[in-house]
Amino acid sequence: MIKRMNKFRINRKREHLILACQGSRCSFTTLYDDILLPHDSLTTINPDETDLSAAICGIEVKSPLYINAITGGALVSESVNRQLAMLAKEFSLPMAVGSQFAGISNPQLKFTYQVVRKYNPQGVIMANLPATATLKQARAAVEMVEAQILQLYLNPAQEFIMPEGDRVAKRLLANVAEICRTVSVPVLVKEVGFGIGASQAASLAQAGVRAVDVSGTGGTNFARIEGRRNSSRWWTPLASWGLPTPLCVADVAVNGPNIEILASGGVDDGISALKCLCLGAAAVGNAGGVLWRLRNQGLAGARKYTANYLRQMQVGLALMGKRSLDDLGQVSLVITGRFKELLKQRAVNPKYYWRRGY
Ligand SMILES: Cc1cc2nc3c(=O)[nH]c(=O)nc-3n(C[C@H](O)[C@H](O)[C@H](O)COP(=O)(O)O)c2cc1C
Hints:
This protein is 44% helix and 11% strand.
């Protein structure tokens, strides 16, 4: 029985990698077009003079971009993780491994995760497990990759659509609180592309979580990925389920608790990243964008994508007249269209962002 479960899980991991790169993106607006960053035609800063350094869960990092959780557990994961680790090392990016359940239940698969530490011994690495994991599993995941941060993920929409999915756990928050109290590294809680809003962030902050990665809609769409693994199409209306990433960031920043906010879910370029940082995020994660380049254009394509991403951030910062990310929380944004309407619906007065820093 255990062997059969492992086989299912390994196949699922492989299918996720394939389907994520084959038309499983969100097809609806990401809202970034509704946000204008302030242009400073009198800027005295050149892109090369900008400093992208940031901090994630108290750990100082050279740029606010991290490679988010993608894979581990299937044989193909080893090669994906190896190349992502090389990329992470080259650009000094923090990196998360994918869910480590497979490696915990079958030690023979540990190498598909540990390759990340092997190729990036000094890097910032995040362990990854579902928020339903036991304390013992959480400790084992951290130890497996010598992680500096533990990511716990929430994925009810994915589980409900997945043909072999689990039901939600009733003691979820108590479980998260116990893990936060006991593991030796900071814990961040993330979604997988459906979003975390202010009220969930408040509960998570109370549970002792250090940061939330809102991981909203706009990028990888797990309703589509899991839906396409179903034999019927009952799930189709759920393909647009979830909250867009910029809305989640603003909601948590304005209505939420005092908690570190990380933005992922369709944050696919350096300018979208800057917009998330201005809305209140401390750093940004990317999974689907970098994975697509890696699978379709090889390591060279992923390298170019990452270099462009960071360059876009530097140029954007310089064009705002900013040398560092420190005072992005003070820049005034122009917010229009659907995003403006959505903010009002979440009781966020768009004026909050309009005339900051004056
Ligand atoms: C192929 C694939 C596998 C993923 N597996 C995991 C996982 O194991 N654990 C997790 O927390 N998130 C997982 N994610 C979700 C990402 O970490 C991220 O939250 C989500 O894809 C949204 O970001 P994106 O739009 O940049 O892809 C996975 C994403 C992809 C593309």
